[in-house]
Amino acid sequence: MSxxxxxxxxxxxxxxxxxxxxxxxNIVQERNLLADTKIKAGDAAMRQLVATDLLIxxxxxxxxxxxxxxxxxxxxxFSNRGxxxxxxxxFTDHAISLDDERSMLVACPDHYxxxxxxxxxxxxxxxxxGAIEASHFVIDYSDSRGLPIVVDPDFPVRFSGxxxxxxxxxxxxxNHRMRTLAQGFQVHAAIFFPAALPYWFITEHRWHLACExxxxxxxxxxxxxx
Length: 226
Fold this sequence. Notes:
Structural class: alpha+beta
Distance between the termini: 38 Å
Largest sheet: 7 strands, antiparallel
CATH class: Alpha Beta
Radius of gyration: 17 Å
CATH superfamily: START domain
Order of helices and strands: HHHHEHHEEEEEEH
């Protein structure tokens, strides 16, 4: 894997700047193969693979977090099947309680490592937004310190929590809100980023959110029989 890092960087830059057409005819098989490869390699190999990235992004996130303002990357996703409550329970079970790494990794190729930390946290290594280097952070869904969390009564199901880097500095967080509709449910996925980051980090992260949440929703529906 490490021998292909340069090619990966070039590919990421090309996707960000040029947006060449991609063949998605085998996308499901490719997502599964990539997730299986990461799991087979193991956590230690994944951490080693992006060790240089993490040295850079940890320091960069410390600097970005000094500016006490937040930018929000957010999207809405609708499902015509299932309920917000059931999906939230599925996510909690698979992301944290069961530590179902495969369900977390297969949802988005930007994910390198996702593990549940009981009772209500996640250890995450992923490429966020328009970045081309991986970041490491822990999301604590019981702690939303210093974040402008929106509590909307029309979206009663929520996943909100602070994201902390390896130094324990709050570098962002989640403010996902959900509600059940007459048919299906709606997810308003929202992520806080330091406002000091380039704007494309925020806008491009919407694609990341769309990818992971749509695949998690499909997995939930397939497994629950809705």
